[in-house]
Amino acid sequence: MITTQVITRPQRWDEPFDPAMDDRAVSRLLGVPPFREMDEQSFPDRLPLRAILANDTRIVNYKPGDLIIREGEYGASAYLMLHGSARIALDALEEVADKEPVKKRGRLTRAVARLWNAPLAREVRRRPRGQRNAPRLGRRGAGDHPTFFLQDIPRVIQDCYTRPLQPGEVFGEVGALTRSPRTASVFAESDCIVLEIRWQGLRDLMRYAPQMKQHVEKLYRENSLRVHLLETPLLAHLSDEQLAAVADATRFETHGSFDWHSDLLGDKPEDLFARVEREPLVAEEGALPEGLLLLRSGFGRVSQRRGDGHQTVSYIGKGAAFCAAALAHGYRTGETPPLRLSLRAVGYLDVLLIPLSVWNEVIAPSLPPEEMQALLDNYCGQQCAAETSLPARTLDFLVDRRLVNGEQTMVIDLDRCTRCDDCVRACAATHDGNPRFVRQGPIHDHFQYANACMHCVDPVCMIGCPTGAIHRDSASGVVRINDPTCIGCSTCANSCPYHNIRMVEARSPAGDILADDAGLPIIKATKCDLCSDQPTGPACQHACPHDALARLSIADSQPLAQFLNLDVLPSERPGGPV
Questions:
Q1: Half-sphere exposure (CA, 13 Å, Cβ side) for 390?
Q2: 16-22 own/partner pairs: CB under 8 Å, 24+ apart
């Protein structure tokens, strides 16, 4: 007989950011800016200001030279200087760039040598050699959260262009809110005290404290907004004065849950319609558009009503524009029409809203005639949009499992695959006898999306890596693991919602398991590196004798549709103006 045990339902703050944050520390924080200017009455009873500071922040002490933020890493925290001084390096710090260089392709001798020199045992690691930057980049502490520090601060300040950060300044907020790589390193210049605010707390502070929201938005407008607008094709033709007017009027919106990968790891109800209904609605079909929506980060589901449900038309991501077609039709006819499509946040979605008046007065009059006509044609075509893109059930499968996040997804045609495992053997031969993927994964129709690293648009595996060992190569976009700096903490493997990272026990060339001083085995994270140092590219794809395997960007519908044996028009690519 099955019995039921009653337990307390888990709550958000069961695990505070820092258990040592007591009432005394919170009271001190309430006496410093910007918290002392905040009205505690504006916070709801379920999210009081004191509770946010007690559970979503922690006070960290840094010594001179300690790295607070490393350029290129992914993080989920913003920082507030409380005491002392730090510096932001506006030039790249050579000491921080300790990633393993990617060997150039095209050297056949390297590929042949790898076959001849392959070790007999699996997961062999050579004796660690001294770090390239050891005299200039030090490491303090052990375990999963070591601290790295610069050893020659005067030389760094002399050789690099840096800017001081003083008490009261906020930094790291854009990377925390948009889950983008840090654009600069920050290091302590003197003994300093920093308040680290995890993104959940920063989100709530911005929601209920207008001055915090205004401050963060001001920083984004000054440092990043103009660059984002310039990268938008619809705005590329604007003059500096017009672009400044657009930037001044732009509003920021966030929809959905930043922890979408945690939801994906959990159980999902079977009813797709119910899941779509729960996705946060950004713009609704039939409603009048408020303005042009530009996607800053995350993914959106574009859908159309069909009977009592919703049919997925496409998915869009960072850099895409929504409502442009309807706005163009309204500008040409003088009457803004209702939207023919809906936009929902898949997981989470950050958008920039450019008001309708700015579109009509600044953007639309400056659009080249051919671009305006393309938008008008797109608006007319939205009446039959559901019939001219990937099949709705395929789109629902890709969006529901967040496979749209994949830049190099391994797709296997099971009708052509003979299960010969040549792909697995080729992967093993390229990686010293250790395959870096598992030929299993979710199946839709007769296509399998295998458990191989997808080198995602939103690489949640990078968040929390204490050493920056897992990183995206800036030149190729490949997500790689720098083996010498991997400490085996499993943070990346636990964060990957697709189960594409494996933790393995390292061995010596003789086959012995490597262990630390306490006798515990040395663990390393492993995953597909897209054979970035091989002249042929991904060995798995190159070795398949039946062309049953391909590495595809799910964000690009045309190659995907061709591989799935579907007919898709060349112009139908998710990410363009809708």
A1: 27
A2: 16/54, 16/55, 16/56, 17/55, 17/56, 17/57, 17/58, 17/196, 17/198, 17/201, 18/57, 18/58, 18/59, 20/58, 21/53, 21/54, 21/55, 21/57, 21/58, 21/59, 22/54
| Residue 441 DSSP symbol | -
Count of other CB atoms within 10 angstroms of residue 213: 16
Alpha helices per DSSP H over 141-239: 153-159, 173-178, 199-208, 210-220, 226-230
Report how far residue 352's alpha carbon sits from residue 298's, in angstroms, rounded to the nearest whole number.
12
Q: What is the pLDDT of residue 134?
A: 40
Say what the pLDDT of residue 131 is. Answer: 43
Residue corresponding to tokens 């969006």: 399
Residue 230 φ/ψ region, left for φ over 0, alpha for ψ in the -120 to 50 degree band, beta for the rest: alpha
What Rg do the C-alpha atoms of the chain give, in angstroms?
26
| b/e code 129-149 from CB counts within 10 Å (16+ = b) | eeeebeebbbeeeeeeeebbb
Identity of residue 48:
P
Omega within 30 of 0 (cis) for the link into 34? yes
CA distance 281 to 214: 24
The pLDDT score that the predictor gives to residue 281 is 92
Residue boundaries of the structural domains of the chain = 18-96+144-205, 231-391, 399-563
Per-residue pLDDT of 520-536, as tens digits, reads 888 899 999 999 878 87
The single-letter code of the amino acid at 243 is L
Q: Which pLDDT does position 14 carry in this prediction?
A: 76
Q: Structurally, what CATH architecture does the domain formed by 18-96+144-205 represent? A: Sandwich (2.60)
Report how far residue 189's alpha carbon sits from residue 462's, in angstroms, rounded to the nearest whole number: 27
Pick from 383, 506, 525, 399: which is nearest to 453 by CA?
Answer: 525
Predicted TM-score of the model (pTM):
0.68
User: CA-to-CA distance for 278 and 302, rounded, in angstroms?
Assistant: 14
pLDDT digit string, tens, across residues 32-44: 988 998 999 999 9
Q: Which helix (H) or strand (E) holds 187?
A: strand 185-188
Bridge partners of residue 212, in order along the sequence: none
Contact partners, residue 157, CB within 8 Å, separation at least 6? 87, 189
Burial of 113 (0-12, 13-18, 19+ CB in 10 A): exposed
Three-state SS for 396? helix
Amino acid occupying residue 95:
E
Low-confidence ranges of the chain (pLDDT < 50): 2, 4-7, 9-10, 101-102, 104-107, 128-135, 269, 383-388, 567-575
Asked if the domains 18-96+144-205 and 231-391 are classified in one and the same CATH topology, the answer is yes
User: And the tokens for 400?
Assistant: 């529901």
Whether domain 231-391 has CATH 2.60.120.10: the reply is yes
d(CA 539, CA 494): 26
Length of the chain: 578
Between the alpha carbon of residue 422 and those of residues 419, 429, 543, the distances in Å are 8, 10, 6
Q: Which of 548, 524, 545, 520 is nearest to 434 (CA)?
A: 524
Quote the CA–CA distance of 203 and 209 in Å, as a whole number. 10
